[in-house]
Amino acid sequence: MKKLYALTAVLSLLGIADALYLTIEHVTGQTVRCTILSGCSEVLSSQYAVVAGFPLAAIGAAAYFAVFSLATLAVFGYTIAGKLLTPLVVAMFFVSVWLFYLQAFVIRQFCQYCLFSAAITTCLLVIVVSLRWFRPAKH
Amino acid sequence: MKRILPFIIILVVLGAALTSAWYLTRTIPASPNPPVNQPVNQPAASPGSAQASPAESQNPAVTGVPGAEPAHVHGPANAPVKLEEFGDFECPPCGIFHPILKQMEEEFGDKLQVTFREFPLVPTHQHALPAASAAEAAGLQGKFWEMHHMIYDNQNNWKKEFDVRPIFEGYAKQIGLDVERFKRDVGSDAVALRIMQDGKRGHSLGVKGTPTVFINGREVPFENLPAEKLRVVIQNELRSAGQ
Question: Could B6 and A108 be called an inter-chain contact, meaning their C-beta atoms sit closer than 8 Å?
Answer without folding.
Answer: no
